[in-house]
Design goal:
The chain has 4 helices and 6 strands, in the order ααββααββββ. The chain is of the alpha+beta class. It has one domain: Nuclear Transport Factor 2, Chain: A. Strand 5 and strand 6 form a beta hairpin.
């Protein structure tokens, strides 16, 4: 009887330990993603669009969906940002609010949030959905849908 108890309890304990480790891993990954996003916010607020773009996957497969349609590629996304925000005045001060961050897999997460640009003449705001992937050990945005 003692051995049956041991056989039944060990898998349960293993599952509990794995669950705790998984929750810890998810929390650490979420912290890493949040850091990238807030580093982007800081880069934007110093007027450095290229540094802001470091949070994006440097690939032709990056997708950005905005009010003007779909743009593919890191270079094209950078060019869009530079055209839309040619100077610090039009860039304003960026503020991100994360509304939800969901782990889809160990290497993929979905973020829903709100952005606000605080400028002298206006304060545009909107929502975004970002798909993050861990590529070569680094979390990057592979898809951005902003409205």
């Amino acid at each position: 009887m003692k051995y049956i108890f041991t056989i039944l309890i060990i898998p349960f304990l293993f599952q509990q330990c794995t669950s705790v480790n998984s929750q810890k891993d998810i929390k650490e990954e979420s912290s890493s993603i949040r850091k990238v996003l807030y580093d982007q916010q800081e880069a934007w607020n110093t007027g450095d669009i290229e540094l802001f773009m470091e949070g994006y996957w440097h690939s032709d497969s990056l997708s950005f969906i905005g009010s003007s349609g779909i743009i593919y590629g890191w270079d094209n996304t950078l060019a869009r940002y530079q055209k839309t925000y040619p100077d610090k005045t039009t860039m304003g001060e960026l503020k991100f609010d994360i509304l939800d961050l969901e782990s889809l897999s160990p290497t993929c997460q979905k973020m829903i949030g709100r952005y606000t640009l605080i400028r002298e003449s206006d304060e545009p705001t909107g929502l975004f959905t970002l798909i993050w992937k861990k590529i070569d050990g680094i979390w990057v945005i592979v898809s951005d849908q902003t409205c």
